[in-house]
Amino acid sequence: MPGQNLSGTLSPAIENLSNLQSIMLQDNAISGSIPGAIGKLRKLQTLDLSGNKFSGALPSSLGDLNNLNLLRLNNNSLTGPVPHSLSELGSLTLVDLSYNNLSGLLPKISARTFKVIGNPLLCEHNSENGCSVVYPEPLAFPPNGESSSDDKSRRLAIALGTSFGAVLLLILVVVFLIWWRIRKNKQIFFDVNGKGGFGIVYKGLLTDGTVVAVKKLKDDSNFGGEVQFQTEVETISLAVHRNLLRLWGFCSTENERILVYPFMANGSVACKLRDQIHGKPVLDWSRRKNIALGTARGLLYLHEQSDPKIIHRDVKAANILLDEDFEAVVGDFGLAKLLDHRDSHVTTAVRGTVGHIAPEYLSTGQSSDKTDVFGFGILLLELITGQKALDFGKTAANQKGVMLDWVKKLHQDGKLNLMVDKSLKNNFDRVELEEMVQVALLCTQFSPSNRPKMSEVLRMLEGEGLVERWEASQNIETPKFRAQESFPKRYADYIEETSLVFEAMELSGPR
Fold first, then answer.
1. Distance from chain centroid for Cα 318
2. Residue pLDDT, tens place only, 24-41
3. Domains along the sequence of the chain with CATH
4. Which residue out of 64, 191, 314, 421 is catalytically annotated?
5. pLDDT tens digits, 140-162
6. Residues 63, 82 contacting (CB under 8 angstroms)
7. Is 314 a catalytic site residue?
8. What CA–CA distances, in Å, run from 206 to 199, 210, 217, 263, 376?
9. Is the bond preceding 308 in cis, omega lying within 30 degrees of 0?
């Protein structure tokens, strides 16, 4: 619940939530001390209490959180020493204690990123062992919101120093083992044709038996500099949310880039929607609704809670993965930015999939969070219809154009039942169908300024504010983002009219 204006104290009774894996309460107004009982949450992997009003000492029980991966307590009023018990945690990736009033000697913490800037007493006592070298990532912000030139130099020092050191060496060893096993037995994962929008994805096996997905990015002369690529990868790896695919590691050489992700047991939503054609169990209506909610939460985090903000640029069923519990996990976020090192966000070629690309992106090449909202609207229609937006015109004998135009016509005629995936055999909630279609149509309005933000989309899917937003949308004119007298009435017309050059080989395929 980040940024919800929460106040009060954190109750010691939190220890009763023994299955918690993530606590994200950043950017609120919670005060008091951090209860020592928090150390009893043995499954906790993420603890983010940054940007609050916590005071008092750090509890030594933090050292009992053996599965803790990310610890952010920056921008509070914490005092006293950093507990030595934190040095016993081997799973830590990031520790940010910046901008508090900590003091004493620093223990040796084995996190990839350990940031303590903004603790004058702490740095004063640790000047001999180089207090300035333990905060390589620009994750915290000064209380006045300004960044200093020292911060910029530290960021550069990170990329050239720490990340090129022990971390990269360790990752190279791990990826080498993965690579060796792949060469012995190549298994293409999520990609029956062997090619996707950004590369090939293989199924790999680590020496400890962990199954992983290994994406080999396409050989591209626009990879850009090593430091820039590494900085972008580290930015993506810091986006931690249950509905986002975690980046476990990467390997970078002169000619290729390799990314390592956790294996998603149930593949992609697109694969599951295709399975029904072959008689395999289908995604029932309840699961489809949950997939929509999970995807919305993941995109909301990228757009409004991640720093910096990340735009996906290719939201579709093939890029939404499903874990062992069929929880939606947004994949490939940030890769479009990762592979596009132009100075401007306005490009001369579109990365994405026709049928999912927003009209303004087709017309101008300019993307924003609202282009992702459009793609999410098309994803909702994929979940409802069970069909691909791209190939829709080929399979609908009596309908010319793409899925969006067809759905608009059925909605106008009051024939929503005709658009529902027939494999559901009428087992769906009629009220939820009407609501989901309305949300999809709000997301796919031609003018980006008329589309809701992902936070609004999530609230509407949860049943809040949809009626008012839908009624207001009925009085809105069509697109205003292109200076011309007449506007196409159908999405298919935008595809036909656009003068933008498409990079056909870059259009994303199945993952």
1. 15
2. 999 899 999 999 999 999
3. 7-164 (3.80.10.10), 178-262 (3.30.200.20), 269-506 (1.10.510.10)
4. 314
5. 444 444 444 455 555 555 556 65
6. no
7. yes
8. 21, 5, 20, 11, 34
9. yes
